Amino acid sequence: MGEEIIVLITTSSREEAATIATALVDEHIAACVNIVPEVRSLFFWEGKTQDALEALLICKSRQPLLEKLIGRVKSLHSYAVPEIIALPIVAGSRDYLDWVRESTNG
To answer: Which member of 10, 29, 41, 61 lies 3.0 to 4.6 Å from 83 by CB, making a disulfide possible if both were Cys?
Structure first.
């Protein structure tokens, strides 16, 4: 496998998730973005444990595009510190991963 990655992003709402996902795909920063409409997140923020319902984006992209992806997400996101975590894809369907590469070459 190569430079393909999965990027996880949480958002405050389904609407915000759709806005970010559309921008990433339209701009060829991500080949595909899945939106999980509701996840319950517990996290420490502003001195206390928070409990929030969020949407989760699962983005398929490439490592060389990560900084551009992070910048674009931050420009659209409502959080001061959005969760943006990249994970390597260690194996997968060669046809699918080729498509990810082709779709993000813009």
So the answer is: 10
Beta bridge partners of 6: 60, 87
pLDDT (tens, 9 = 90+) of the chain, 106 residues, equals 589 999 999 999 999 999 999 999 999 999 999 999 999 999 999 999 999 999 999 999 999 999 999 999 999 999 999 999 999 999 999 999 999 999 998 5
List % helix, strand, coil for the chain (3-state, nearest 5). 35, 40, 25
- What is the sign, positive or negative, of the torsion defined by CA atoms of 19, 25, 29, 33? positive
What's the rounded Cα separation, in Å, for the pair 70 and 16? 15
